[in-house]
Amino acid sequence: MSYPCAVCRSPSNKRCSGCSKIAYCSTACQKEGWTTHVIECANPGRELTTADHLAAFVRMPRPPTNPEAIRDYGFTNTIMHDRQLAEVYDHLIRVLGVTAPKLNRWKDAGQLEEKIRETFEAAPVTRRGKAYKFFVERGHRFINPVLAKRDQAGYKRMRAMENYLLCVPDGLLCLDVPGTVASWPPEKQQFSFECWTFFNLKTIPRPHEPAYLRLGYCAGQTEDEFDYIADLYDALSKECYVDELTAAYASSSIIRLFEEKGLGPRLHRFSRLRDFIQILSRPYNKSFKGTVWELKASLMMRTTLEPEVGKYWGYHNCKDNSDTYQLSFSLSLLMMGDPTNSNLPGDPMGLMKAAAEGRLFDYASEKYEMARKGKQLLRRLFVTEPNPYCQKELGL
């Protein structure tokens, strides 16, 4: 009687010699499936190790559930990076051919971090993948016993942050985090997540994330400015609980909260203060559609605006990719400036006002000199109607 192969589903009359519970059609399929089957097999032929449990689970890929494997292979300290660490091990096993017994030997010899690094570096650059980048930048800390012990303080800080967000007294745990969060209004759920991710962890949201616009990070131009915004929010979150932050967020009064908590002088030293205030003073649930801030996020991500929006920035006049590139380049200069030319600093609010008035070409001509050919091109591309989204944003 034939059974479907556990790997490729082809019919086979060959069964696992250890337990006879699953079928394999070939040696190759048995080798492929053995990594995950070994921890379930009634007679695997050798004593299992925590590396076997690790290898079985990261093929999903997800962190192991075996407590000893979690401890042995660095998942104790990962907190928000468990999936990425699992992908490091998955890449080692699946792509670079490292076996569970070999991982176990490295671990027993206290050479896990060293041998993983050597294995990645011995592989061609094209076969290292994103797992190598994560390992070098962060993952090695979870595996190195000295660094991991040092990072235990980070885990405690994360637990304290969870208690802070859920208003749980120190030393206690919320036993139903999902249920507690689900009972909150949507705006509190959203803002609490952003408090966790972008305030206390000081993570910088990327242009594709809603928080990049809503929290005013789009006002920044450089890494230093993004870091300054992150530092402002970090300082604010230390002065008040999440309920107070949420109330200020929902009422568009975050700027006032900075002042009330004694952070006004620090806030006013921010080089992009005008833009930051404009963004955070708008209704928290108001769409950014069609505004200069949506345009900025689109330019940074190199994505395409919806046609109904893009036409107000001149994209409907583009005949080919060259036109699109030149238009995007010109809009970027007007909004973000030229880092090599102090006479062209960029002015998002000025660009938005020009768009609202339907005078993009005149505005560009005022801001920087153009060669004759470039001037002819932009004269054609910047033929637009007044932008109603920008008019609404500016109250015109």
What features would you describe in this structure?
Keywords: Metal-binding, Zinc, Zinc-finger. GO terms for molecular function: zinc ion binding. This is MYND-type domain-containing protein. Pfam families: zf-MYND. It is a single chain. This protein has helices spanning about 25-35, 50-60, 65-70, 80-95, 100-110, 110-120, 130-145, 145-150, 150-165, 175-180, 185-200, 210-215, 225-235, 240-250, 255-260, 265-270, 275-280, 290-300, 305-310, 320-335, 350-355, 360-365, 370-380, 390-395; strands at about 5, 10. The chain has about 400 residues and is mostly helical. It has four domains: about 1-40, no CATH class; about 45-150, no CATH class; about 185-280, no CATH class; about 290-395, no CATH class. The protein has a two-stranded antiparallel sheet. The longest helix is centred in the C-terminal third of the chain and has 16 residues, at about 320-335. The N and C termini lie far apart (about 80 Å).
